[in-house]
Design brief:
The chain has about 210 residues and is mostly beta strands. It contains no helices and 12 strands.
């Protein structure tokens, strides 16, 4: 698969740049799933946490007070909700070479909040057609790359429908960028937003 990096913030549908700093959050040390940049995540409903006090905690845990929301990787498919996408993984002093948070180690992340008109660059699991633009579809979970630290999640282009986890809003239009192939980089917005006030809309599937 040529492009699989989960969701990376690109900008807004009206052309505005994305400039927010993101939400800092905690991945608990007993969470048994590895976390990568670009992974879609959900906020754990029950409470918050201090920075994990493990040997892999970032150095600022020694001096930082307060509590932070707890995040876990979202569930693919079935219109399952997404709070946002991991924008960065903070260094772990126990293993500075890690670009991700290994399973059952804990750490802190920065998360880009999913907003109705915020577009994320995403890859596709299969060939995309022009007629798939403005459709809705779910995401497919796949293991991240420990060498790059990027997520392996992609858009499930074979399952376009009127309701799904994301909308396909278009292609990333840059010189030499592939279209209608598995190399395509798509611009997508999240349809199933956790804790969203806005109601779920519908894609344009015939």
């Amino acid at each position: 698969m040529a492009y699989a990096r989960g969701g990376i913030a690109h900008g807004y549908a009206n052309g505005s740049a994305y400039t927010a700093a993101g939400q800092r959050g905690v991945v608990q040390s007993d969470y048994s799933t590895a976390v990568f940049v670009g992974d879609p995540v959900v906020m754990v409903d029950a409470g918050a946490s201090t920075i994990p006090s493990t040997t892999n905690a970032p150095s600022e845990s020694d001096v930082m007070d307060g509590t932070w929301p707890i995040f876990e990787v979202a569930t693919a498919g079935g219109v399952n909700v997404i709070w946002g996408f991991v924008a960065a993984v903070e260094p772990q002093r126990g293993s500075l070479s890690n670009k991700h948070i290994p399973a059952s180690t804990g750490g802190t992340i920065m998360v880009t909040r999913a907003e109705p008109d915020l577009l994320f660059r995403m890859g596709t699991d299969n060939t995309i057609a022009i007629t798939d633009i403005n459709e809705a579809c779910d995401l497919i979970a796949s293991a991240g790359d420990t060498a790059t630290g990027y997520s392996g999640w992609t858009v499930d282009i074979s399952g376009v429908t009127t309701a799904g986890q994301v909308y396909i809003r278009g292609y990333l239009n840059t010189p030499g960028q592939a279209t209608t192939t598995t190399d395509s980089v798509l611009l997508c917005s999240v349809q199933s937003i956790q804790f969203a006030i806005n109601p779920v809309g519908l894609g344009l599937s015939a």
